[in-house]
C-alpha cells in the first residue's frame, strides 16, 4: 500500500503506523503512544484498527 496519511491531525502516515506495529504496538492505545496518531479528533481510529488487523 502507498504511504498515505492516516492521521491528518498529527500527520502520521501509513508506514509510521506499520513501523510502530513492527516495533510491538498491538492496540490503538499503543499506536497513540508510539506515533501520536489518534490523539487529535479521533476520526482516524478506525483506519488504525484496520491497519492493526493487516498482516
Ligand atoms: S485524524 Fe487522527 S486524530 Fe484527527
Provide a short characterization of the protein structure.
The chain has 55 residues and is mainly alpha-helical. It has 3 helices and 2 strands, in the order ββααα. The chain has a single domain (5-53), classed as BFD-like [2Fe-2S]-binding domain (Arc Repressor Mutant, subunit A, Orthogonal Bundle), CATH 1.10.10.
Structure description:
By secondary structure, the protein is mainly alpha-helical. It has a single domain, classed as BFD-like [2Fe-2S]-binding domain (Arc Repressor Mutant, subunit A). Helices cover 47% and strands 9% of the residues. The chain contains three helices and two strands; from the N terminus they run E-E-H-H-H. The protein has a two-stranded antiparallel ribbon. The longest helix is centred in the first third of the chain and has 9 residues, at 14-22. The mean pLDDT is 97. Residues 7-10, 37-38, 40-44 line the site of FE2/S2 (inorganic) cluster (FES).
Q: Helix coverage percent of residues?
A: 40-55%
SSE ordering: EEHHH
CATH architecture: Orthogonal Bundle
CATH superfamily: BFD-like [2Fe-2S]-binding domain
The spatial strand order of the largest sheet comes to 1-2
How much strand?
5-15%
Low-confidence stretches: none
The number of domains is: 1
Number of strands: 2
What is the CATH level 1 assignment?
Mainly Alpha
What's the number of helices? 3
Report how far apart the termini are: 12 Å
Q: What is the overall silhouette?
A: globular
Give a quick account of the main beta sheet: strands, pairing sense, barrel closure.
2 strands, antiparallel
CATH topology grouping = Arc Repressor Mutant, subunit A
